[in-house]
Write a structure and sequence with these properties.
The complex is a heterodimer of chains A (about 450) and B (about 200). By secondary structure, chain A is α+β, with helices and mostly antiparallel strands. Chain A contains eight helices and 23 strands. In chain A, the strands form six sheets. In chain A, strands 4-3-12-7-8 form a five-stranded mixed sheet. In chain A, strand 3 and strand 4 form a beta hairpin. Helices cover about 40% and strands about 5% of the residues of chain B. Chain B is built from seven helices and four strands, in the order αββαααααβαβ. Chain B is extended and about 65 Å long. Chain B has a domain of about 120 residues: Cytochrome c-like domain (Cytochrome Bc1 Complex, Chain D, domain 2). Chain B is mainly alpha-helical and about 200 residues long. Chains A and B meet through strand 3, strand 4, helix 6, strand 12 and strand 14 of A and strand 1, helix 5 and strand 4 of B. Strand 14 of chain A pairs parallel with strand 4 of chain B.
Amino acid sequence: MNNADKLKQSQAIVKAANQELSAHSSISHNPKRRALLGKTLAYAGAAGAAGLTGGNALAQALPIPESNRTMGRTIPPEDYGMPSKYESKVKRRRTDVFVNRQNFSDWSMTPLAQQLGTVTPNGLIFERHHNGIPEINPDGHKLVIHGLVHQPLEFSMSDLMKYPSVSKFYFMECSGNGLTDWLKPASKTVQQTHGLLSAAQWTGIPVSTLLDEAGLLKEAQWGLFEGADGSAHARSLPIKKILDDALIVYASNGEMLRPENGYPLRLFVPGWEGNVSVKWLRRIKMGEEPWNLRSETARYTDPMPNGKWRQFSMEMEAKSVVTSPSGGMTIRPGVIEIQGFAWSGNGKVRTVDVTLDGGRSWREARLEEPVMDKSLTRFRYEFKWDGSPMSIASRVVDSTGYVQPTVDDIKKVRAIVGFVQHNNSIQPWAVSSSGEVTNAQFG
Amino acid sequence: MHNLAKTIIAVTAAGILGACATSGTQKSATEVPKLGKPISEQTVALWNIDVRTKDGVGLPGGSGTVAQGKAVYEKQCASCHGPDAKGGPVFGTMVGGIGSMTQSPRILTPGSMYPYAAILFDYTRRAMPMNAPQSMTNNEVYAVTAYIYNLNGLIPNDAVVDAKYLAAMKMPNRDAFIQDTRPDVKAERCMSNCKPVNSKL
């Protein structure tokens, strides 16, 4: 496709988004669709309880399912397996809070409520691009290391894949996750409030291995990492973090990266804002100081009181969210299992507490093993809902002792003006007496 | 006899040591291939487009005027950013906002927000125009940088902008940036009789 065709395609997507917003017909906006979704996600516990008390013991025998009485489909000669057609609603979605006026510097979000383990399937890992998704042939792709090193080096993809690899489970979160929902509940679903979050098993090479080969000069205190995309996206990173655990990654969840996630090569910086994990990595340059690029000054910085801006705030602090029940769902009285994710860019999840009364009282949730460093941890908490209105939320404490704050806590020290990054506040969901779950984030 | 015994002991010891050394090597497995192809800085010259914006290290030769920049802007930028960089169908304004940093919202433009003038050059050269990035000459990038800063009232109409000029410019927002000292928020793990998550709950 040439640029004109790509532009047309993008305009069609933006137009469709406009129509969807104005017609309020998106899955999260249409009450009928929403009710349907709620029913689909109805809790096995509640259904089970109703079955026990319903007195339907004399119900008709279950028919033999049609699938028991027919031959299944055969294995095609070659195939890349896809999800069942009945799961077609589980998709990445662009924001429905506002219409981005173009589709090249854009993002799409992970359906967290439908993510059932602690790993995000490759086709659902969130996206953020600054000038579209490049199509890169790995045979021609090069990684260059230069600047303050003894010997500048060039690597081909086949070179890189011959190095001893490591595979690590890590979450990845965009610093802009939740930026529409600081002061008012703009987003309807957890996909919209928290979906710039994913997790995977990432496979690649420690950056330090390749820097050792090039030979770091002692003046090399920062590195510039640059992508081969149409924005030549670049970020500066301090040497301590680069050598500590940064990886040059070519695979996620057991297969080569998807194009939208950096194929064939990306940087991965565990626990730090996704923007620094530069995709389509082509160049590493070592230097004495940070470069102070646009993405390190005008963007990805935090407004602070008195007109100040906080810079290079790259660790993603501890955060948690209830994914079920969450915005857009409908629940019924009975046993409810609260589920959600907790994570910290500064270590492991230590505890997660859950509230049912808007934060007046809290009780400790169960953590599902394994609880890993800088990874998603699932938590669960069961209770019997009697049908009275309630407000649900979760709060994580990480291995450093850091406690997840409320928006009010954060507002005491930062200026929440405009599109503000690094929102790790507690997310409340309100449940009405009819069981409808809505976003209750008011700052 | 005596010497033979010594020899046997020595051989045995060497054998044990040898075995230790072998198992140590197997465990550590630190052998890593070295497959990088040595290159020179000249090899990477066309990729080496970054500017250390604080002092302008990396800015190339060339220059541009405000008038030349207006022509470049109208051809390459106006369709998205609008006439006079006041905002267009795709992106918002790139002028004004100086003095807005203590207001809400803060108006973020190259003039109001960038602490260093060379940021605009670096970003424009690497990423603009969006439909043909890295297609402009260095002179064109200098010129359009001059035009945008002129519209922001930061440089005169007759300015000729080059590497030296950008490195010497003092931007209004230069001293606004502070380093990360988080954790800045200290929440407590209250379990009962706590303050609600927000005032509406």
